[in-house]
Amino acid sequence: MFTVIELEQGTPEWRAWRREGIGASDAPSIMGECPWKSANYLLRQKSGPEAEPRQNAAMARGTRLEPEARRSYVTATGRDVNPACLQSIQYPWLRASVDGICFTNHIMVEIKCGDSVYRQTAKERRVPRYYYGQLQHQLAVTGFAAVDFWCYLPGRPELLLSVPRDEPYIERMLCAELEFWGRVQQGLAAPAVL
């Protein structure tokens, strides 16, 4: 079970809410699957002084393209989804800012608009490992059975993969996230491998 938090993604209030818990994009770092952010770096971000958010050009492009990509997903699938901020009732620190969700039909979508993720997904026909934890975290928060992974680049065919819930992975992830959140609360360093 989860509750919907009425926040607009990208605002200072949203950033403060994210900092007070573990979001879906934090999961790959905690699981040791993120090539660009370690668990220790994430721990410093969560427990240190708040820094101004930084976006590289690729992140800014993805943010800019996301509404267009969501409209493309709705048109292609007929599934009407909207962004939302969700928080677990059982674990209030467990949070997710989803790109699109339909509560009545239990449909959720994660949108990616980057060149490299598009190329890798098109080539391998599976979600890149460094995004898998993000999707499973969203499924842990919602309890849904699957999440759609939508890769979008203007001028190229859209890519849609349905990613099923992976209960053994979610169990490992929740244990690692619970331990990580305890370290955030205590101001401790993250273990080398979670």
Average pLDDT taken over every residue: 93
| Series of H and E elements | EHHHHEEEHHEEH
Number of helices: 7
> What is the name of the CATH class?
Alpha Beta
CATH topology tier name: Lambda Exonuclease, Chain A
Spatial ordering of strands, largest sheet: 1-2-3-4-5-6
Helix content percent band: 40-55%
Stretches where pLDDT is under 50 for at least 5 consecutive residues are: none
Number of strands: 6
End-to-end separation: 26 Å
Our count of domains comes out at 1
Using the alpha-carbon principal axes, give the shape: globular
Salient structural properties:
194 residues; alpha+beta; Lambda Exonuclease, Chain A; six-stranded mixed beta sheet; 7 helices; 6 strands; 44% helix; 19% strand
Describe the structure.
- By secondary structure, the protein is α+β, with helices and mostly antiparallel strands.
- The protein is built from 7 helices and 6 strands.
- The protein has one domain (2-186): Lambda Exonuclease, Chain A.
- A 6-stranded mixed sheet has the order 1-2-3-4-5-6, sandwiched between helices.
- Strand 5 and strand 6 form a beta hairpin.
- The chain is globular and about 45 Å long.
